[in-house]
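Figure 2 data, in text form.
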Amino acid sequence: MSVILEVEHIRKSFGDTEILKDISFAMDRGSTLSIIGSSGSGKTTLLRCLNFLETPDEGIIRVHGEKIFDAKECHNKSDAEIRKSRLHFGLVFQSFNLFPQYTAVQNVMLAEELLAKEQPEYKARKKEIHNNIEKHARELLSQMGLSNREDNYPHQLSGGQCQRVAIARALALNPDILCFDEPTSALDPELTGEVLKVIRELAQRNTTMIIVTHEMAFARDVADSVIFMDNGTICEQGNPREVFANPKELRTKQFLARYREGSS
């Protein structure tokens, strides 16, 4: 497999508080990376930096070997350039973040339609382009098992269904890397199973994914590699089964011990 993502020396602070401290890692195309760690360890901030919802203070991000972000040069980036860089990543939020005034299919269509409107041929081919985008959105929702709920509004859907709409929306622009920020934390156990099933299927299709999760068994069994974060640093990374069975770092051992105690 070829390397798809390289993250080099990312740092991020909010005021005087350093949230990310020299984060570096790489991942291969078609692989799944799980990021685990206690609340406040910097996991979500890292995902937001990858999606340019936050701007790293230092560091470099490369996708397919192309430098898409360098903190030393970011002040020269236009909004259009930042949006283009963001297209490499699709983000699924823990609280869905669906637009309540739009149906499921409209939520999935929205980003693709906004991009289409920026193209010079959009006015001449508006109806054709709209129909193609709608067809694509309905296909994605069908893949999520929602072919009978496409025209429902978010308030008419369960939490698990809303999260599957959010996954379809993140896939709509065909991102290089699909990122999940605690995708099951707002769900009860039954609905959690629905969403994890979809993510397992995506992994089987070799979708490149980064998953921030507290579902330790899922992180161990589905991911190709795992990163344990604590206090803004990467304490340990490697094969999930090896890390979970025989963690080398004390902080990893303590974290996994607390997890085992809580799940027993």
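Caption note: The two ends are 37 Å apart (CA to CA).
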